[in-house]
């Protein structure tokens, strides 16, 4: 297999840097024939297979220790565009900026033509270089105020199973695989091609105000009633302030006439500005929030395209610069909690008290909305909810990882007490009790995985962790992450 590396290689996720994983080999995928060849080789060698694209995922679901890693970053051709129906088909390794650029190229606008073009409905937030196949596997969502996860935007996809067979999956054809593979975290096969449902590209006006988490959902409702399509609430992160997890910047995006021009001189944060905000979020949280709020308030009334306003700056390896200033090796780890909308303020008050009491270092946080997913087999959006995202700073040491695990478990418990849940694969800190309570059909999901993949060809370290956790073998809640941090620190020449 000449496309694969011949010996053990270490790979890691791009954000938390806590998933340093020794893989047996890496194969660059460029075609369906490559995937079939790799699966046959993995079977011959008795290797498990995992697939990765952008490598942003943090919970270990994209890597498998000792296994074969299929890298899809060069598997990214445009396969078709249906301008009548608003459908686009791409190879699964294509990433979101490429897709948006393709759609712009395919729909040139003549002078004076203001008719809507087709573009994406949503993508994940925070970073852009996620593969389309990986986005389906994680069933991502964005800042849509009335949207379900991305499964609602998928017309169909092709899935290559362990036997090398390709299955076309839609709501009418192989509907069981459709619901299992979207939000299936790569455990049912390799997604090779995706057909997405597009929406008319719109001009949007950014509306901004400072708001309190008390009554926030009523404000979201008012934005929706005014026609807002996207929005979020980014809250204050300084535990020494009375505004902690309470005051925030509410930004919503209202539709404008399609001929509304976009001024060339609009305010924008440059990469250096984002890096300055990141540093302040670690060293002077009130100042970070003040600067962020001032910028967004000053940008109120600006005009954006509905697709490119979803793109965002992300500097990979940004924490290497911060580590020198902070004096330790660290990174941020995300958790996303779901609570019924009417419970949001209660959850945020409880979370603020807990995070203060345990001196947890919150770097970033936001609240979004999600509509119930009634199509995937393992839905994380089990009801209409407020989504609360916490980005916590974690020191790469045994003590730092243990404290992070405790913080995430306490947050999960707070959400669960209110009838809420958590996102499965941002980290591996949840207990077996929490996993069963918040995702009651998870064990049925594992049983179906074995039914569709009896040799367990498709695996990941996250999958192995969850199986061991539910088997009750006494595995450490944070052991895998601790090992990853030590390996990462060693690879960087730093002490953990």
Automatic annotation (TrEMBL):
Record has Flavoprotein as a keyword: yes
Keywords: FAD, Flavoprotein, Membrane, Transmembrane, Transmembrane helix
Gene3D superfamilies assigned: 3.30.465.10, Uridine Diphospho-n-acetylenolpyruvylglucosamine Reductase, domain 2
PROSITE patterns: FAD_PCMH
Family matches, as InterPro entries: FAD-bd_PCMH, FAD-bd_PCMH-like_sf, FAD-bd_PCMH_sub1, FAD-bd_PCMH_sub2, FAD-linked_Oxase-like_C, FAD_lactone_oxidase-like, Oxid_FAD_bind_N
Transmembrane helix listed as a keyword: yes
Domain called FAD-binding PCMH-type: residue spans: 18-201
Segments crossing the lipid bilayer: 177-199
UniProt-recorded name of the protein: FAD-binding oxidoreductase
Organism: Roseateles oligotrophus
Taxonomy of the source species: Bacteria, Pseudomonadati, Pseudomonadota, Betaproteobacteria, Burkholderiales
